[in-house]
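User: For my dataset I need records formatted as: sequence, then structure tokens, nothing else. Please produce one.
Assistant:
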Amino acid sequence: MGIQDLQTFLENEGVGVDLFRIARNHAGGFRLVLDAEGCLDRLYGGYFSDWACGGQWARCVQFLTTLAQALAEHQVALCVCFNGAHPTPPALPHHWIQTQATYRQRVNSVLRHIATKGTPPPKVWWVPPMGLHSCLRTALRYLNIPIMVSSDDHCQEVVGLCREKTYAGLIGCSGEYLVFQPPRYFSSSQLKLTYRSSLETKEYMVHELPQVLDVPQDRLCLMAALLGGTILSEQSLTDFYKRLGITQKKVPPETLVKAVCQFVKELSSSDVDAACIDVFGDLNDLRAAKLKQAVQYYLNGTKDGFLKYRTASGRRPKPSKKGQKPDISPQSTSTDLDTSKLATESTEHELKGLEDYKLATANASMSADLSMEERSFDILHGMAAMSVESGEAGPAKQQSTTPGDKIEKQTTTSREGRQTVKHFQYEDNCSPAPAEVLRTCAERHARGLMHPHMLSILTHRQVTLPVLMEDDNHREIPSIHHFFRPIRQNVYAILYNMHHHRFMAQKAKEEGSTSSSSGVDRPCTVQISEWIYSRVNPGKSPEIVPGIVLDWPVPTVQRLWFGTAQDDKCRRMRAFLSCMRSDTPLMLNTSYVPQHLLILATVLRFIMTSQIQILRRQELDAFLATAFSNDLMNALHLQEMTVNGINSRGVQLGALVMAGAEAALLANDACGAPVPWLVAAPWLYFDGKLLQRNLHRANHCKHLAQLCDNHLDTVVKVERMRKAILEGLEVEFAMPPLPLVAGVVGGALGAWGRGRGRGARLEIAGVVVGQWGGGSYPARTARYPQVSYVGYTPPPRNAYGGRGWRGARGGRGRGRGRGTAAAAGPAARSTRRSRRDQDEPAKPATLTVNGKTVRSDEMGSQIEEGSPHEDNSALDTDADGAQPQKVKTAKNAKKNIGKGKKKNYNQKSEIAQTLETNGPLDKNKVAEQCHNSEKEHIGQGDAPVSN
């Protein structure tokens, strides 16, 4: 229910069209605005069944390249708009909670489907992969397609851009656009680029909407407001719907739209006050004010009310004359800082990033598909020039707004943000961000050159984090948003100059200044509201998160963004690496970490520095092998490749790393963009489908070379990058899952202990080598299996790189140190053994049979006396002239004991023969035999042998 029902109601009224055919008959080119939020799956490349694996970014870029070439050839100029708006409460939670709840249900269905069937999920559960917005913005910027990101109200700004820049039409799928009635309106959800070189979609005849709905034109906005929306929700109109005969929560869209249209049509007048009295019965009702506000909202988007539109943060700026340069107020900027752009946007820095990008894609299989010819680039540049000459002037630059208006707008927005913060009953004592920082952030945000969270943090001190492809109840992987929260906390402190304010306050306090004594009662702190939808807190209230300063004197955000000195460049990179816990020498060594893999390396190191053990050794190698794979950018090969064994853990690991990459991009922008935007593109280091394949192979490969398809150069690169990631860390990888061993974890022999009879157990020097019978003895605790990691050979007694399962001094916990275990090698053990042998005399070995301890010499004499079950088959064999029987050791005895009741009678005789043949046993030999038998148990779970 709601205004979106109007869009659903008119789906059948659309007419199929080809945008390229319309462009041929349109003089001067066909210019359109595309609302990307309604066709994210289309921009991703259409539907592909492997989107849940983490994102196929190479395939996405290939599709966008094909789309850009087709648009340029048919003279269609497209401006893509993304939703970067952050409306203030209470408008935020209602609509946002509904969207996140829908995504949460889909994610649960996807993970359940993958866990049970191991196949990709169906299209109906499609959820945007983590990092899709960043990938689209970077790819479109690379392809010279104009971008616009909204900041206050998405739909209003999109339709406003369409009217201001005189675009020919709008492509979207929101019911609000139908009420706004743009020049021409096309469906973004039906957008499809076909192999016939046509761009097909549906067109809605918005100007015929009053006739279709049978509602007067002047009452169209009132009808839309009564359908329910962001301002006046449908829950507030429940009583009104009951009067119309709608009592169910979910009704067909046709029923609701027709009932509301009939009510609006029968009103005596189009006066809003009269309508409020008819709907609510009283003008003093709080809902009446919201109804008026909702009607005005729709009027502001129409052609007549467009010029009178006022945003929540100020008046609509008047368009400036063409060619007029904005006046820059000298009071608002520092004398030594250029705030028109970031210092890293210099020509030298951009060329360096382009060179690194070409170097990274030089040997890629997809480079021929991605790299466009010079003619195509000329067409794209001509298309951009056509947009500028038509009055667009780079639609996202918003040159119609002067910097003074920008500063006033951001100051007002910041003030409103501070007022909304009082709703959550918390306050901080940190001053607002500097004006030049706010202005630069607003300009870069509108052009899609900065992470959308930056403007929301600086103006509203709030941030919304979407639902990810993760399980709320997962035991091995924590909540992803909470896991990467320390990165965001460092970003908050950097953006609000917390270190600088604390330093100045401490300096003033030391100087005994009394003028600022009231402001230094407590240190400067900033608190940000993080909206995270989870099972515990389904969007009811935000989580208040304080900023945390880094452990070194970080420069101010002005110096990080605009400083041009060589020290500023180093400090920008150091600040970024410090946020990612990656400030190590090898991280900046390009022979270990290539420039285009720096984002991935910092994310993996941040994961490894956590106290929570998430990644396993082979999983870390799988991520690195994916980044260095020759097939990473071969979109055609990846599309045809089939992956066997997709599991939910691999899917969640892909979402974990991509969420970390998003946090790294946020930290990069906050620190002045030390990593060039082009080499931070996700398709240079990640592909979800290839990752799932490598994760599956890593569990079965014996060594790293097999995982890297026997490419030795790739093996060397993976080893070096892993060394840089783990530099200076005491690494503890996550434990692999225990295999289902028969008799231990309920396998086929899980009922071995239910037989009748007392049974028996054989021990040699205190080590159990076999047991049989009815299972009256309890099963031993299963040892953890020995695992051969990819590219790594662990010691035989400790398969996880640790000091031992019982710590350095016999404790039961896993020790974190490594030095003691490394020092206690074979030499140390032999020394201890020799000392023990010198101090204590050698004792004869003992055997325990059926709970009785028997010496070796006594064992032989007892057997010689005879037994009713003695086996004489060996004597018969010798008499026949056959080969003499081999001497059986303890190892062979273990294999034979317990094979069944048929051979149960000769166990004592075999051991006796062994002892008589070898004579008196030496203690060291027995210990060596026991050690060998114990090695055989490792990896087998010490499963008892059944009858």
